[in-house]
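// run 5 | inverse folding | seed 20
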């Protein structure tokens, strides 16, 4: 690196010592296969540093000189697992490999020059006179930079004079980009097409579902259709973009042994601090800002943060219909689902760019007109029995079968459900979906209803008998299906109660603007 560096600090690098080095600054082609974070379940992706990982394969053309040489693969993923790297195509293989994690940056330079001499240049504001003096960096870069000069110890940028540091050269172990270095040998100069394959952390993916419910007016209570659309959302938490990458995502959890945390590349700007000019008792507690510079603004509200983060998502291969016609997009490119042993692989049919610190969305499931039942559910486990009226949960239930309009693997993810209205599709609620195989039951709980409510009243509690009454009220203009779970052992076989998954459950249809009730008795131990 021979360019002068000018940020808060400036310096001009001296030429590196002569050595046989071959540099590959970027791949020619790249394949990116992303695996979900293990154990994340239906929780959203970690926005700061995604907890999944990726398998990355790059092809690079490198001119290798005769003899022993060092080949530098620049621009590898920030979270690279160096022990996983495999390089093929070298004339005599790899003799040694190293992961260069120290990045060239203002803080990286200061850290590399600790206890070393730099040149300090200062300009007098009154006279414009420039003077230079030698200094030794004794502390930094976290919390400020402390220099030792002939005048004693002082902090950088705290004299009130314009100043900068100059370095004698850029240390060889500092790189402008994350780099993998390998040492190899060749009997003669050769231009070789190399393949670099490695695993890296800092990636993740999830499915994001957009569902639009369409109530059917066929006289069948609770029967309806839902248009299901799913995005494949890929997240790249590193500082390296992958241009025109052949991109895939793997659903499921392949066995992967736990490993120690890998060091992420160092680097970044300098956080310079000076002691305020007030008296000690005038300094606010925990003040860590430069004099006369106000503290940063408080963090935005959660909703504003989510909206700002959403702007970073890049959507690929879709177009939007008018809002009054359809809430979900119409896909023009859909990820293709394939089998990968017992796992499922989703292949993006065209190369896409996955940007650094960004998210990419590609359509992965398009299933209009799927059959779902709408019902209202409740569990009386935590009800006090004092007759308090509580809202029931709105639940959409369906089966993942071809004859029901689905019949394909459904990866876990977030669901946003819209319903038709006079103003177009409006958000009815949000839910989560667990991984569902073909033939599984699918349930989406989207919120609570203020129109359909239930109450539990204890009507007898003497001796060995505890009897209860459950009342349902329906304020809607159409009949509704309800299910009440009673997770206790009941005495006898009450009418209308059957066991579902081992739990006694009362199922009924409540008429429009009507009411319904039932009674049960608990079986108590002697």
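// decoded
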């Amino acid at each position: 690196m021979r360019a002068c560096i000018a940020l808060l600090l400036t310096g001009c690098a001296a030429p590196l010592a002569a050595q046989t080095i071959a540099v590959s600054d970027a791949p020619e082609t790249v394949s990116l296969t992303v695996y979900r974070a293990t154990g994340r379940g239906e929780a959203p992706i970690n926005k700061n540093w995604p907890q999944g990982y990726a398998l990355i394969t790059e092809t690079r053309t490198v001119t290798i000189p005769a003899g022993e040489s060092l080949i530098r693969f620049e621009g590898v993923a920030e979270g690279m697992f160096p022990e996983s790297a495999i390089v093929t195509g070298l004339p005599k293989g790899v003799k040694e490999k190293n992961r260069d994690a120290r990045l060239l940056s203002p803080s990286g330079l200061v850290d590399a020059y600790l206890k070393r001499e730099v040149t300090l240049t200062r300009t007098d504001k009154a006279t414009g006179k420039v003077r230079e003096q030698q200094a030794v960096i004794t502390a930094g870069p976290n919390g400020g930079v402390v220099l030792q000069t002939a005048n004693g110890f002082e902090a950088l940028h705290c004299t009130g004079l314009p100043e900068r540091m100059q370095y004698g050269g850029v240390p060889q172990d500092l790189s402008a980009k994350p780099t993998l270095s390998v040492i190899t040998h060749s009997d003669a100069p050769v231009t070789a097409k190399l393949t670099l394959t490695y695993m890296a952390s800092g990636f993740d993916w999830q499915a994001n579902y957009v569902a639009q419910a369409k109530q059917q007016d066929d006289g069948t209570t609770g029967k309806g259709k839902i248009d299901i659309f799913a995005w494949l959302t890929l997240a790249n938490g590193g500082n390296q973009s992958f241009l025109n990458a052949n991109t895939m995502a793997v659903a499921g959890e392949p066995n992967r042994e736990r490993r120690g945390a890998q060091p992420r590349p160092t680097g970044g700007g300098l956080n310079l601090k000076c002691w305020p000019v007030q008296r000690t008792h005038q300094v606010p507690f925990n003040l860590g800002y430069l004099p006369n510079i106000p503290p940063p603004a408080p963090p935005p509200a959660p909703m504003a943060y989510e909206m700002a983060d959403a702007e970073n998502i890049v959507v690929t291969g879709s177009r939007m219909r008018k809002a009054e016609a359809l809430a979900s997009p119409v896909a023009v490119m859909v990820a293709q689902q394939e089998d990968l042993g017992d796992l499922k692989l989703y292949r993006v049919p065209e190369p896409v760019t996955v940007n650094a610190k960004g998210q990419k969305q590609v359509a992965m499931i398009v299933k209009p007109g799927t059959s779902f039942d709408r019902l209202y559910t409740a569990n009386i486990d935590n009800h006090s029995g004092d007759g308090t009226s509580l809202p029931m949960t709105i639940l959409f239930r369906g089966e993942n079968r071809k004859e029901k309009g689905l019949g394909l693997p459904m990866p876990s993810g977030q669901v946003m459900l819209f319903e038709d209205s006079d103003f177009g599709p409006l958000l009815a609620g949000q839910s989560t979906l667990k991984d569902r195989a073909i033939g599984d039951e699918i349930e989406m709980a989207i919120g609570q209803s203020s129109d359909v409510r239930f109450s539990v009243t204890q009507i007898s509690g003497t001796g060995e008998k505890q009897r209860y009454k459950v009342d349902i009220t329906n304020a809607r203009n159409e009949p509704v299906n309800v299910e009440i779970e009673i997770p206790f052992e009941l005495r006898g076989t009450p009418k209308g109660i059957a066991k579902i998954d081992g739990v006694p459950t009362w199922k009924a249809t409540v008429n429009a603007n009507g009411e319904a009730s039932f009674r049960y008795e608990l079986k108590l131990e002697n």
